[in-house]
Amino acid sequence: MKDAFGLPQSLLVLGGTSEIALATARRLIARRTRTVWLAGRPSPALEEAAGQLRGLGADVHTVAFDALDPASHEAVLGKVFAEGDIDLVLLAFGLLGDQARDEREPEAAVRVAQTNYTGAVSAGLVCARSLQSQGHGSLVVMSSVAGERARRANFIYGSSKAGLDAFAQGLGDALHGTGVHVMVVRPGFVRTRMTAGLPEAPLATTPEAVATAVELGLRRRSETVWVPGALRVVMAALRHLPRGVFRRLPI
């Protein structure tokens, strides 16, 4: 069960090799978390991540999970919840894609959408139902400021995150009063392997900073977390710019 500060004893990570998710897991293990499930495609990277977390003192398990195989989600995730209550589910998988290539190759664009949105809807609903059956728990969904307003430079990725963000907000409303807490996290540009080689955006942040914000959000029972916090104001301004002006911005 979570403690008085909202921090979990048990954690399920969907996207077990995500740098943001692993930074969050390390931070939570340092506080209170003792059992971790890392769900992702079987790989040496997944096993390495599990080993690193075990070195911090956690009981860590890996589970084969594929966001692109929604038909398997209920069985795969159901087995995790059958092992015992899960206090926190961190939905952190995602695919950035390559905008230029994805515009030329619709199948590649569909893969981005299916990973970031369809897969997340499936896994999110499965986990939400299990958390509701427990009567407690949190679902933290890694969204992005890219979903606030589609930009020419990454509108395929941004549109998938917009869908995910709206879904997570609606799910949070649906679960209100059930004992299940949904928190949407909207980071800006995060320095990770996924963004390596890309031009760095203003207010860039790190996985560790996102992890700190997630912990604070859990303690406060926040529904939305911006990382860094200044992005809330920036995006509020960008969201209301006339389209003709927004189109000319170098973003």
From TrEMBL:
Keyword Oxidoreductase: yes
Sorted UniProt keywords: Oxidoreductase
InterPro entries referenced in this protein's UniProt entry, alphabetically: NAD(P)-bd_dom_sf (IPR036291), Sc_DH/Rdtase_CS (IPR020904), SDR_fam (IPR002347)
Keyword Oxidoreductase applies: yes
SUPFAM superfamilies the UniProt entry points to: NAD(P)-binding Rossmann-fold domains
Pfam families, alphabetized: adh_short (PF00106)
PANTHER family: 5-KETO-D-GLUCONATE 5-REDUCTASE, DECAPRENYLPHOSPHORYL-2-KETO-BETA-D-ERYTHRO-PENTOSE REDUCTASE
Family per record: Belongs to the short-chain dehydrogenases/reductases (SDR) family.
NCBIfam families in the cross-refs: PRK07904.1 (NF005912)
Name of the molecule in the record: Decaprenylphospho-beta-D-erythro-pentofuranosid-2 -ulose 2-reductase
Organism of derivation: Streptomyces levis
